[in-house]
Structure formats: C-alpha cells, structure tokens
Amino acid sequence: MKSLTIGLALMIATQSLTAQTDTTIKKDKDLAAVTVTAAKNFVTMKNGTLVLDVASSPAAAGGTAWEIIKRGPGISDQNNKLQFRGKNVIVLLDGRPTNLSGDDLFNLLSSMPANTVATVELISNPSAKYDAQGGAVVNIITTKSKKLGTNGTLTAGTSAGRYGMYNGGASLNYRNNHLNAYGSYDYRFLKTYTESSFEREMGKGQLLENTDRLSERVNQFFKGGIEWNINPRHTIGLMAKGGINTVDGGSFGRSLLADTSSTTERKDRSRVSTPSVNLYYKWLLNSKGTTLTMNADHMQYNKKWKDDFVTRYYDAAGSESHAPYVLRDNSPANNQIQSVSLDFTHKTKFASYEAGLKATLTRTDNDVLWETSSKSGWQTDFDRTNHFIYHENIYAAYVSANKEIGKFSVQTGLRAEETRTKGNLVTWNMKNERNYFNLFPSLNIDYTANDKNTFSFNYRRSITRFKFDVVNPFIVFRSQYSYYQGNPDIRPSTSNSFEITHSFRNKLITSAGYIHYNDILGSTFKEGKIPGSVINSSENLGTGDLVSLTIMHTASILRNKWNMTNTVNGFYAKQHTPDKAQNQGMLTAMATSQHTILLPKGFKAELSGSFSSPMRIGVIRVRSVFSMSGGVSKSVFDNRGSVSFYVADILNSYVSRYNVNGSGIDSYSRTKEESRFVRLSFTWKFGNNNVKVNTNRRNGVETESRRMGE
Known about the structure:
29-stranded antiparallel sheet; eight-stranded mixed sheet; 41 strands; single chain; mainly beta; 4% helix
C-alpha cells in the first residue's frame, strides 16, 4: 500500500510539472471557437458562501455525501456531530430539511452517493429565511439535468481496503419546455473493520477495554420527481427521495479490571429507512420577480434495531467465575416530520423584501425492549426497557429587507419562533411540557471598497436545540461499564454571533468572529451504581465564548492548470460554569489544502489534506488528527464517460482519540475506523448532451430549511 500511495503522489507531482503550459484550443469547422481549458477549484467563495464543486471532483466518484461534507474547509466531526468553524450546523437537502443529526444524519448521508450531489454550500451566517437552529448551514444541492430531451448517467465502482466493496447506480431525466421528469437509484455495499480501546483510572486500579468490530453495510438511495410549468407564471412539482441503510455487524470486546476480566460478544442488525415527499407550487406574480412559493414536506425515519449480547466473566486464573450473562434488545423507532411553509419575495425601487411563514410538527416514538435469558426463558429487563414519545411543534415567521446604498449592501431580518414540546416517558408515566418564544434578529452589511477589496459584517442570533433522546430521563445501556441518561429539564442554548470578513480579489479571504453562548449544552459524567460504571448525561452548564480567525487563499499556477485552495481556521473556546473542570480553554487550529491539477491527454488529479490540532470541549480533550487523500480521473468516449482512481487516507493516519478528565473521571478512548482504501469508478453519460434549456427560463424552488436535532 505504501508503494502504491507514494507512486500516486510522485505521478501527480511529475505529471503536473511536465504538463503542457499552452492553453488547449479547440476549433470548430469555421475556426471561430476558442476554449481555454483551466482547472476548476474544488472550493470557491460565492456571495459569502463556500461552495464545494462535487460534480467535477475525482475523489467524489464512488464516495458518499458524508465523505464529501467532511472535506469542507472548517468542517469538523466529533462522534458524527458536524461543526463549521466551531458552530453547530443544520444540514439541508436542496434547501429542505434533513431533520436528522448525529448517527441518524450519518446513516442518511452515508447512504447517499456523492455522484448524486452537484455542490455543497457552507453558510457561516445564514439569513432570517433560514431556521434559527444551529449557527451555520450545510446545504447539499443534488444533481439535476438542465438539458432538453432524454439523458441519463450510469455509474459503477469497486473499492478495496481490508475487504472488498462495490457500488452502482443509474439516473434518467426527461425534459421539454413544460415538463421535467427525473429519477435515480444507487446501491452501495461495503464491509469495514473498526478497533477501539478504552482506559479509565479507578479506585480499584485501571479498567482496560478493547473491542474489535466487523460490519457489513448496504446503502440504497433513490430520488424521483416531476416538475410541470403550467405556464410562464405557474410551476408545480412533486419529489420523493430517501435512503435505506442496512447493517449486519458483530463485535468482540475484552475488559480487564484488577484481577478479574470479562468478554462481550455482540451481534447486531439494523435497518433505517428515510423516505420523504415534497409538494411545491410557485407563482410568479409579476414581471418584476415577485413570487409566492408554497411547500409541503413529509418525512419518515423508521428504524429497526436488534442486539444480542453474551458476556462471560473470568477470575484471576482465567476460569469462568459464573454463568454467562445473555442479553438482547429490540429498539424500533418511528419518527415523522410534517412541514408547511409559505415564502414571499418582492422587489421595489427602494429595496427587496422577503417574508414567510412555517409550521413544523415532529413526533418521535422510541420503544426499547431489553430481555435477559434465564432457565425459564427470556425475561423483560425493566431496569433497561423504556418507551419514550416526544412531540415538538415549531411555528415561525420571518421578514427581511435588502437595500443597495452606493457601495454598501445592507440586509436585515427578524425571525420569530414559538416552540411547544411534550415528552412522555410511557414506562414511568412521566410527562414534561414546555413552551417558549424567541426572536432572532440578523444583519449583514457588505461594502465594496474597489474592484479588489470587499468587506462585510454579519450578526445573527441563533438557537441550539437538543437531540430528541437527550430529554428521555431513562438510563440507556451502552456497555457493562457505560450508560447514558437523558435530562427532561434541559433548555435549548442561544447564541449571538458576530463576524467581519475581508476579501482581496476574491482569492484571499480573512474572517474574524466572536460568539457568546448562553445555557451551553455540555456532557457530564458520574459514577454509576455498578462498580466501575459511568453514566454520561447532558446539562446546561453556563455561558461560553468562542473567538475565531479563518484565512482562505486560492491560487492558480501553470496557466491555471493547477488550482489550490488552502484554509487555516483557528479558534479559542472557553466555558464559564460552576465546575472548574469544564472551564479549561484551548487554542485550536484546523488546516485544509485542496489541489486540482489538469494533466495531459484528458487526465485530472486531485490531492487533499487536512489537519486538526488538539481541542477541548468542556471536560473532553480531543487529540490531533491528520489525513491525506488523492486521486486521478480521465475523460473517455468523447467526454461522455470518465474513469477515476482514488486513494483515501493515504497514510492511514485518521484516528479518533480523546480524554475525559473531570467530574471524577480520568479516561482515554481511541477508535480506529477503517479509513484507507483504494477506489476505482466509472461514469457514463448518455442521451442528449447538446441542447440546453433557455437561460431565461425560470425553474426550481426557493425554500427555507429545517432541522431535527443538533
């Protein structure tokens, strides 16, 4: 593997330095058309938004939407919780809510092939049109053909790490002047290996745990829809999409404490489906661009989850000390979200205005059944079994205005949200209700000093709502020494964010920001009733501050054949809580480097690397991590097809490590997921590739976004 990756790196460097520096000139029969070929940046800045060009990336072929998002400059991932420049994010699909977070969001985006994604937008300071949830927005724009006639794409690929993997898919699109019908289906199989270790200092000595896990995952993703332009002013559309993620896994863990030890064998099976339907109607009221857009969304999150555990106990001599402990659980979830929104845009000579209304109704139903095996058969374990139903309704209204004043552009907005929640722990007949109302102002001022320098100032108030399982007061079993307990009294956290940005020739962009948090949501740890066990929970810890600096530089060399984007993010976060262990701050730096290189004879190379220095989140200290990946692609069959070869995590250096030091806990965890693999992919486009839609034709939908969780 080392010789392969070193050879790939040398090939990229050698080919780029010896590449032809002449511009590629294509002439038609009249010798009138001249095309200048240049490498296209994977990362660009557009109107204050970072845009990842997924469609032209060799690394995207055969990958997933989750892998692409994690390549974004300033994006960090802690246990499947995404942040952008230190801010919690909400993730949208085509401007609409994913309504998921954490592992649920990972399951959805891991089942979504990267070839279905055109671009990804990273919005640091979204306007009042967006939900107030989270400090930043990640908007995934899926592919959609704009060519008239019938056309489509076929994809196929294979990967190899420790085990083999493969993927395939197809999309078909038909469009005329009034109708656009489209559909796609993608399939992906992968088998991965994960090893993890855990160490904790205890009164009796040191607890050591090691776990090896092997899992087979099948991801399926589908999308289909139809858009009908009734006439130039009226458009109606229907779209359905979603994923099916199936996992069959098993793990074997070993625990050692003082002179005793135990082993736990686990077999698990899960199936998660996320179907969603959107119906929209768009009305162009006049020739000045006044529009009225209505959206109705329905999403299901259905989960079937089963686990079987067998724990064996051993004495100092290595003999079994008593009978094995046999445990199993069945944890289905049936969550659904309905959303209805109305958006209005209007332009006048004085200013441009936007206004809207939205209602989002969410219901989660998690029914967890644990059973233990005995001589008389399976018996319900009432200490672990619980049934929790949670309702959250959010009613929102917003208004914003945009005004051009000489060299200044000013946009101001106000969003109002009323939230009503109701939790019902059916197991204990415990109910909890809460209603709260918040106003969220926003302000953006842009100043164009000259054709080289622009400045902007942003302010936004936002809210971070908890994941739905956080309010479940029941103690949830994770392992024999690890548990999680929710907190029904937890409150959402609010923040005020300020950011100043300078852009020089749109190539050197510098941003400085400050965020003040109230009622921070943080993790706490305490010892459980079982000797050696720890219970993790969530609480409102106090206030916090975050100061950040981001520098992004884009450069082109070799006559635009080699484009690079280098980004450095630095931030310092500190909490102010009664617990001194939670208040330790740390300066953190993150750096990413993206390179796209045009090579002779239709080849294109891509090389990327990322580094994150140690960071502290309350009592949790995350260790540094580094990763580098690269690939090449070549156009074939008169540019109708492409072949790509990609190596992920060339040095096999991506590993998650963190310490917990506080609240009476001193522990270290390390998880190494399989991250280095090679991937070969083929894409073929067929059908009409020449006739495009009239550029004056209006299509698409303007929608706002929603969230479900952090």
